[in-house]
Amino acid sequence: MKLKDKLFNLKEKNSTRSGPRCLLCPSFSFRPLYFKFGRSIIRCQKCGLVYAFPQPSDQELQARYESPLFFNEYLKSFQATPEGYDPLLIEKHFRIFLDLIGKIYFPGSKLLDIGCGPGFFLKAAIEGGWRGEGLEISNQVADYAEKIVKVPVYLGSLEALFLPPESYDLITMLDLLEHLSHPLETLQAAYRVLKKGGYLFACTPDFHSLNRLILGKAWAVLSPAEHLFYFTHKSLVRLFQSAGFKIKGTWNLLIFNPIYFHGKPNLRTKLWSRLHSWLEKQSFMEKLHGVEYLELMKLAGSSVPKSNLKQGQKIRRNLYLKMKSWLRGDMLCILAQK
Hints:
By secondary structure, the protein is α/β, with parallel strands linked by helices. It has 15 helices and eleven strands.
């Protein structure tokens, strides 16, 4: 069966209001991209937003997050266990994000980490001086965060909790936006509880990632049973602006996971894995990561001293930035302000 047939007669659906409506614009016109795990991944023809259709119900999502998936996969990815974790490994994993939010920290700053999961990032931020709280919809995950990681966590969605307005100086959403059924509503709720002048920092998979272009449908991020939206720079900026935020900047992180795919290894996945191993050993990749770090810090207002660079250094730096634009990693970051 062809993809368009699996989309319940796309031509008919596109011509009536019985089809999916885009989150960011009033368009009902879309183009099918992938069909996977019984759902389609489609792109809005007007604004370019990519999303899963039909989307799972809230009950289906809740059941997924209460499943053994958390202990079998998420904790394992951090080399953690149901009994404990390595704080040094966690701090190293989130170092670049901790440095970024450190640029906007002041004594007494209050942080809300939405979708905090087991609380690893929140714990590291608290250790760095933030007065932090987390928010999580999964009972078992919130329980782990409170009992094992020992961080304060609200249970439920931000929209349902009605936290006091203008309560936080910073809100973080790490690997969250792609999981939300209603990301615009969540951002609007975040805007309400954020103080005037406060910041929201988020990261989400980049749909323009080199990994997606190489692995295609097999890329594990393409998982429409849990990843409901897929953002690019353009659609992410539009989403935040629709919620009322001012955009300080976006940045793609040069992080690849070539073995993160569904299905059996084939020639394409094997070649990409070898190419990635070769790339990570090259000296220019170390330079790229250094330039990336400085550029990400600029999102929070940290300037890069160009005036002290010699002409040859400026040329090399511009070359690295150009290379960085070609090698798009898996993660897209955004810093916005109320």
